[in-house]
Design goal:
By secondary structure, the protein is of the alpha/beta class. The protein is built from 14 helices and seven strands. The longest helix has 17 residues. The chain is globular, with a radius of gyration of 20 Å.
Amino acid sequence: MSNWPPDWLRAYPSSVQDTLDAALSGSLDPPIVLTRLFLQLGDADAISSLLSRAESERRAAADAEGGDRFEAIRDLLSGHPTAFGKMRDVLATLHGEHSHKSVDIASVAAAFDAAVELSPTASVALYSLGEVRLLASATLEIVLLLKERKLISGKARVFEIGCGIGRFAQALADEVRSFTGTDLSKNMIRVAREGCADLPNVTFSVTSGRDLRDHPDGSFDLVLAVDSFPYIVATQPGLAELHIAESARVLAPGGSLAIFNFSYEEDFGASRDRLRRISGEVGFNLVAAEPTPLRSWDGSLFHLRKQSSLSQDRGCRTGLSR
């Protein structure tokens, strides 16, 4: 695209440049672009100024579509004047004392207990900007992806690790046979139960975070984990591997484990290679690994399928990103 990136943008960190590139191409929706800029710059005035300058740059280059995209992000910012305050409080609660180091399970549970009281929506998805409508839109995109991959059906028994406030239970209850959600946070489970009180095929429980021992072998068709494994990975060595093995145990043959984001500390390739190794050890095949399958959220997807038989599924590893 002509005159892009402009020289003045090179004064910003490369991560900011990458975010504006994604905004300009339309590969990420405005809420996640704004969330990225918040994490990168942290100041609403600085972000507004950056977006205004980027918009002027594209309009001067006769790129009306690009200018409109930057304007839409700036409008989103101005329309949510309290969003950054909520996001900053939630981040401080969840990560302020624990960033880049291992933490114990009890600390993670306590952090989410506190975060959900600050903002239920922001506590499970910072990119919601604390708004129910934006959270519902992002949730729907993941649901549509699950449908497209044929991971849910009217007969499916779904289990979610780290169900938070029950947003996927609400979105999927009418689409599946049953939905079971667990979470470390008793406060999140309380909010989830309140929100799903009229859904008879939905159940929730507080988990120890150490295993899935409360659930029988072969009792589910899909195990869903949306932004929960990064916390499992961070708590103690081997806990992620145990949860993957436990997921294989509770899944019926041919069932799937869908992980959206595996680790915040590893890059995509390292997570993919690690999951490929673990999969083979516990009876899964890693059938898909995709770094950016969504527009509303920049989470990566790892799809593991339980082998129905070693002879039948050996070598069935297609769709892997490189």
